[in-house]
Amino acid sequence: MSDQHNQTRRQLIKGLGITGVAMAAAPALAASPSAEQGFDREYDIIIIGSGFAGLAAGIEAKRKGFKKVVILEKMPTIGGNSAINGGLFAAPNTEMQRRDGVTDSVEAMVQDQLAAGRGIADETLLRHVAEHANEALELCIEAGAEFHPYLQQLGGHSVPRTYQTSVSCGAGITQPLLKLARKEGVEVITRANFLNFVTDAKGGVAGIEVEHGYYYERKLAEGKRERLKAGKGVIVATGGFAQNVPLRQSQDPTLTDEIGSTNMKGATGEAMLQMFRLGGVPVHLAHIQSGPWASPDEGGFGYVSNYCIFNFPHSMAVNRATGRRFMNEIADRKTRADAIIENRDAQGEAQPPLLITSYEQANKHPNCAKVLRYNVGWKFDTLEELADHFGTPKDALKAQLAEYNGYIEAGEDKQFGKIIADSNRIKVEAPFMVVRLWPKVHYCQGGVQITPDAEVIDSLTGAPIPGLFAAGEVAGGIHGVSRLGSCSIPECMVMGMTAARTLASRKA
Amino acid sequence: MSDQHNQTRRQLIKGLGITGVAMAAAPALAASPSAEQGFDREYDIIIIGSGFAGLAAGIEAKRKGFKKVVILEKMPTIGGNSAINGGLFAAPNTEMQRRDGVTDSVEAMVQDQLAAGRGIADETLLRHVAEHANEALELCIEAGAEFHPYLQQLGGHSVPRTYQTSVSCGAGITQPLLKLARKEGVEVITRANFLNFVTDAKGGVAGIEVEHGYYYERKLAEGKRERLKAGKGVIVATGGFAQNVPLRQSQDPTLTDEIGSTNMKGATGEAMLQMFRLGGVPVHLAHIQSGPWASPDEGGFGYVSNYCIFNFPHSMAVNRATGRRFMNEIADRKTRADAIIENRDAQGEAQPPLLITSYEQANKHPNCAKVLRYNVGWKFDTLEELADHFGTPKDALKAQLAEYNGYIEAGEDKQFGKIIADSNRIKVEAPFMVVRLWPKVHYCQGGVQITPDAEVIDSLTGAPIPGLFAAGEVAGGIHGVSRLGSCSIPECMVMGMTAARTLASRKA
């Protein structure tokens, strides 16, 4: 196993499993098809993408009285990337916060996110989402979503404000929302691949062109094509482009196809690119977030990611060669990802650092058993065994552990300023659990610019493009340089609901 | 004058003179006009923009044998933003480096730029430009451009490799290039406002739509419209979007219309936005550079900017309230701009720091007299007078000056690691010159993605868009997070020449 841990960076990254796909299947079109050519089918609202944003938009559209609402999903299953995310949901002023006596506010949540955004987040959008986050959470609960009975305090958040689905993944929300959407009368079609917008004479969006019977793996562009009319509007909720390797490399040449991603393969961003062709403003595409909780020992999001998110507050991350801490374990994602990739040997090869947790604590997370079973994390009875296994200097590690536990006892981390909430004053003690850390491409902060009404702005006129709305990860600029964990689900759902409400407000 | 220096940040920024323009005049078009509608006029190559990139492209196109080459400029004067830049030109292995015995290489120049680019610069493009930079410099000299007889070492460069025009501004290059372009037979038309691309049936660029007789100040969109055919291709060389306030704010909400810019008013980026509508890939738009050498006491690029660029290597920058240095005076631009805006009082109001130089040295730059005449810099016989004037603590300032001069003597800056070249071992001594520093929006690292052949890539297919080329600041991704000073002119000229050469190589 020691050999396994000494693999070079290149091997390490090659072995991560999921690699990006080369290029989108849709052909380049000089101009959008025109509405004058007629339609095969008519809807009031067409929603592209079946993740958190699309499902919330669909439910809200029906509840606002729209008759024909359809959600199109290019993949064979519903939920997109949302279904495989961590199921973490941040909201202020929630029921569990009241129960636990946590003092929180919309403003506190906005300020935490602004700090992570490093000066370029969109404060108006952040406030709009934070104001409606609890409402979206309650929609999940109404739909039947179940949550762990405890709050978590994720990196960059000043208080515990994060719910997590009891299945510890996003499907714990997308499945109930799907059921509710169908009950409300939303039509949902899978293997329906968005090709292009259909525009009217004034440049507004009148509908879309879609390919039915699409098989992602086979890259078929031969399915049945239809032109669908959107009488009221199109809501794009297609997520990010973490799996579009040429596009992410155009923004960051280091994000080659050797770098893993937590995203499902369909996250390739074609609808976003088509919005740019209509005049949508590209915002912050260069800000691509890597998850600091990922493991180099498994593919994709895996089991370790959620395990780490849960355990970071009461764990110690150390450099394997020195045995010393190198970061605040609950700093924001970018700060941690940047710190983790500094762990290299003299030749510059990756040396994934170790996250050390008391087994007793670690095992409180449901993934702990799976982490052990799949050999992507290891249990040690003593610190000596642990140090031997990873070739870490024993005395240094022992000293670091004593120092860290001293900070926990004192309630103040003098090394890296980690916030030690009362609920997290937990020392790291034997027996120990260890996982290795190396970031994976996780989230695209960039996308198309939207207003707080979820409208897409024309880059030349500054006015909304008629009939076009966007919500969720496909929208850019909300979070700035770095999104805080558990702030994506509220954003997706609130902006999806907002798009439907904006359309409803214009119906009259 | 003390009152003047105590103005609040808001006042300070409001007073900068040039503010951004609201929005581009061109109407939003759902689709590009089609070539089937015919043309009013025919060219081989249409070049949009008359700065360094456009002029170099025009000259090279004629020299490669193209018959009808036209440069279109929307403003009433030639040269665009290039004409008012600092006229600084970096190249490795130049004649002045040989004369001075400076050891330099293409690789060294590339490595310096990669460091400033913070991991996301385009190494292939940087190398292509560095390899051809000296050739572009020699074209300037052939055209009649005159340069100061000394090399400068700008921030972030590891050796002196920067030429500067003897008039210390870009017009010292654009004027000779314009003369040469006309001599070679390039047609040049001012007040010709690019509106849109004309595409052929396959989505390639067949020509453009232009408005003649355009008056920027009056925002007329009523001039005579023509459709111009580009038989071989269109080269977009329109520069950045530093003066497009809504667009720059979409990327960075803090860059409001209260923030000054060094750019001429026409730098609003419409042609870049139209390229995105054709499918060009937006790259790094969020990376907008502020010039760390700008003064809050004058509008635009002014006199102080060039004065500072020349003087930084042998000057000391200090916080006004503490008298202490706060940065390496020749770090890269982003490092310095970030450090400068940290100079604030307890209320967060801007406290522009002071750049202190020996008058004897400062006066070697031609702008020194103008800086004094226009009251945007001040001369003091003693350090006491200087400290009194700005309310800076005398003892601290005196101690800092002695410390700094000690580093100069020793050849090593133990405070901030400033590289002290032998030619810059110059102490700061009485009488003193002082200017104040506050960054201004200067350069857009972002733009449209190009290949090393200056082709524009289609975001969906990854293939070049037929007939479309881009060069200069309008292209994005080359420099990454931060461009080094004096690397813009070589980039613009080399990529302009490259676009013409790519077209020529396909003629056969």
From TrEMBL, chains A, B:
Transmembrane segments: 12-31
Keywords: FAD, Flavoprotein, Membrane, Oxidoreductase, Signal, Transmembrane, Transmembrane helix
Pfam families found in the cross-reference section: FAD_binding_2
Single GO term (MF): FMN binding
Database matches in Gene3D superfamilies: FAD/NAD(P)-binding domain, Succinate dehydrogenase/fumarate reductase flavoprotein, catalytic domain
FAD-dependent oxidoreductase 2 FAD-binding domain sequence ranges: 44-489
Keyword Flavoprotein in annotation: yes
Source domain of life: Bacteria
Named cofactor requirement(s): FAD
Similarity comment: family membership: Belongs to the FAD-dependent oxidoreductase 2 family. FRD/SDH subfamily.
Name of the protein: Flavocytochrome c
Species name: Ferrimonas marina
Lineage: Bacteria, Pseudomonadati, Pseudomonadota, Gammaproteobacteria, Alteromonadales
